[in-house]
Specification:
1 helix, six-stranded antiparallel sheet, Porin, mainly beta
């Protein structure tokens, strides 16, 4: 069964940070990119300048642009085509819209009543010598988050029930019973 639903989703993330009093930002607080939630096609946290070999220390600035076209397939299956662009910069002064890495690819979504399964393959569009062609990612999301959002988005604030709607069921009064005996 085909569902008449086509979704274009986009996200922009910009991060800029400096240490207080000229201190360096600790590694745990730096920006990282690459992986299933940022720039697909690259291993986790591997976008940006590398120090020795494949050690990526992160940076003080980050740019990530995600574009995704989601389209229905059959029953519980959705297809995805995406383009991700971005980079991590060692210092805020290095931030540049022209110095970015990019990946494009496709994916499959399987919607179950309990989980959302994601399978994506990203191809590096600007592959450098020694780099792999791309990367495969698999993830599991809790489906209830999507259902809760649907419920919240369907609420209408300040709306009245239609005139032919049934009144809500009456709530019986709460009766208080005393337990035990009291001395008189």
């Amino acid at each position: 069964m085909l569902r008449p639903r086509l979704v274009y989703a986009t996200a922009v993330r910009v991060g800029l940070g400096t240490g207080l009093g000229g201190q360096e930002i600790p590694l745990s607080e730096r920006f990282f990119a690459g992986g299933s939630t940022t720039i697909r096609g690259f291993p986790q946290n591997s976008v940006g300048p590398a120090t020795i070999g494949t050690v990526y220390p992160g940076g003080n600035a980050m740019l990530v642009l995600n574009n995704e076209l989601r389209f229905p397939m059959i029953n519980m299956f959705d297809g995805v085509a995406f383009v991700d662009v971005g980079n991590v910069y060692p210092h805020v002064s290095d931030f540049s819209l022209s110095n970015v890495r990019s990946a494009a690819g496709f994916g499959l979504r399987v919607r179950t009543p309990w989980l959302l399964l994601r399978l994506d393959y990203g191809f590096k569009l600007d592959r450098r010598p020694g780099e792999s062609v791309g990367r495969l990612f698999f993830s599991i999301a809790h489906h209830r988050c999507r259902q809760s959002f649907r419920r919240l988005s369907s609420l209408r604030i300040g709306s009245k029930a239609p005139p032919d709607a049934e009144p809500p069921p009456a709530v019986p009064p709460v009766r208080k019973y005393r337990t035990g005996t009291a001395a008189r």
